[in-house]
Amino acid sequence: MLVMTTTKKPIRNKRLKTILNERFGGKQSAMAEALGIAANLVSRYVTGGKGIGENMKSDIESRLGLPKDWLDGFDESEDQTKTYKTNDPKKQAMIEMILAIENDSDTDYASYTLRLVTEKHKSGGR
């Protein structure tokens, strides 16, 4: 059994705020227009008052031309909890190796690889 727990809400909101400031000069109305949503909803997202769900995350990434899962990207300034556990010692060793690579690398290949392994495991290896 593979269990993955990641705190995502704070990072999604923080990264959206970064885009708001960098691309839209902090103007919530401009971002709201680009996203096709109300400005008060943008405000609630960037202040963390409202979490960004999966569907909205995908819409935001698509409408703003961001890579898939960009809003979930690792940010060292965020307090994130990542736990990957399995009862299989060989799989656990592989997970620990991938996490070690992630910690020593300035790329996000380790997270991507681990996500692929997790998805394959959830689908029964298909």
What does the model show?
The longest helix has 16 residues, at 9-24. It is built from 6 helices and 2 strands. It is elongated and about 50 Å long. By secondary structure, it is mainly alpha-helical. It has 2 domains: 7-72; 86-122. The protein has helices spanning 9-24, 28-35, 39-46, 54-63, 89-104, 109-122, and strands at residues 3-6, 82-85. Strands 1-2 form a two-stranded antiparallel sheet. It starts with a strand and ends with a helix.
Could you state the order of secondary-structure elements as H and E?
EHHHHEHH
Q: Please indicate the count of domains.
A: 2
For the terminal residues, how far apart are their CA atoms?
A: 16 Å
Estimate the helix proportion, in percent: 55-70%
Give the low-confidence spans.
Answer: 1-7, 75-81
Widest sheet, order of strands: 1-2
In DSSP terms (H or I, runs of 4 or more residues), the helix count works out at 6
Mean pLDDT, nearest integer? 76
Globally, the shape reads: elongated
Radius of gyration: 17 Å
By secondary-structure content and strand pairing, the structural class works out as mainly alpha
Largest sheet: 2 strands, antiparallel
Number of strands: 2
β-strand amount = 5-15%
